[in-house]
Amino acid sequence: MNTILTKSVLGIAGLAFAGGMAAGPLNHADTTPTTAALTPVAVVQADKPDAGKLIPHGVQGTQSRIDLNDEQTGNVKAIIAATKKAGLPERAAVVSIATSLQESKLENLGHLGDRNDHDSLGLFQQRPSSGWGTPEQITDPEYSTLAFLKGLKQVDGWQDMPLTDAAQTVQVSAYPDAYAQWEQQAADLVAQHWNN
Question: How far does the signal peptide extend, from start to end residue (predicted)?
Answer without folding.
Answer: 1-18
